[in-house]
């Protein structure tokens, strides 16, 4: 996947996250690429992001997105129970009032991402 900009796509309503990401995007670059943050209430398959984040209430399009971005280097991130089993590489969960994450190495590899086993060591659970 080759974009002129590094695209972070947030699916679902999360004004705080979008605002923070846009603030960050104005200050940082990724490999000399400007960062563009896009947001929509529903998944738009025409957007080709580098990172796609599905909010807590969105689960259905995760497997479709994982299939669409296979071997394209897009990181699928979610915050929904069962998201790693649906194809997300990273899924944020709250345990004991702390934000943690689950990791699905198989999904990351299928997406065409380079992986490192160090991330498995800090994940709260590893789903294959």
Summarize, please:
It contains four helices and eight strands, in the order E-H-E-E-E-H-E-E-E-H-H-E. The chain is α/β, with parallel strands linked by helices and 128 residues long. It has an eight-stranded mixed sheet with strand order 2-3-1-4-5-6-7-8.
How many helix segments? 4
CATH architecture: 3-Layer(aba) Sandwich
- How many domains? The number is 1
By CATH's scheme, which homologous superfamily applies?
Answer: Response regulator
Main sheet characteristics: 8 strands, mixed
- What's the Cα radius of gyration? 14 Å
Structural class: alpha/beta
How many beta-strand elements? 8
> Shape, please?
globular
Strand content: 25-35%
Helix % is 25-40%
What oligomeric state do these chains adopt?
Answer: single chain
Low-confidence stretches: none
CATH class: Alpha Beta
Question: Numbering strands along the chain, what is their spatial order in the largest sheet?
Answer: 2-3-1-4-5-6-7-8
What is the N-to-C succession of helices and strands? EHEEEHEEEHHE
Report how far apart the termini are. Answer: 24 Å
CATH fold field value: Rossmann fold
What's the mean pLDDT score? 93
List the keywords.
eight-stranded mixed sheet, 128 residues, Rossmann fold, globular, single chain, 4 helices, alpha/beta
Give a written overview of the molecule:
The chain is of the alpha/beta class and 128 residues long. The chain has a single domain, classed as Response regulator (Rossmann fold, 3-Layer(aba) Sandwich). 25% of the residues lie in helices and 30% in strands. It is built from four helices and eight strands. An eight-stranded mixed beta sheet has the order 2-3-1-4-5-6-7-8. Helix 2 links the parallel strand 4 and strand 5. The longest helix has 11 residues, at 15-25.
């Amino acid at each position: 996947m080759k974009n002129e900009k590094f695209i972070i796509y947030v699916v679902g309503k999360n004004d705080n996250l979008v605002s923070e990401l846009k603030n960050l995007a104005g200050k940082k670059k990724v490999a000399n690429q400007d960062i563009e943050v896009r947001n929509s209430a529903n998944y738009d398959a025409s957007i080709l992001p580098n990172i796609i984040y599905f909010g807590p209430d969105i689960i259905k399009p995760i497997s479709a997105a994982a299939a669409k971005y296979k071997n394209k280097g897009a990181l699928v991130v979610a915050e929904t129970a069962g998201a790693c089993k649906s194809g997300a590489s990273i899924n944020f969960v709250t345990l004991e009032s702390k934000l943690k994450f689950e990791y699905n190495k198989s999904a990351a590899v299928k997406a065409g991402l380079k992986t490192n086993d160090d991330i498995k060591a800090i994940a709260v659970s590893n789903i294959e």
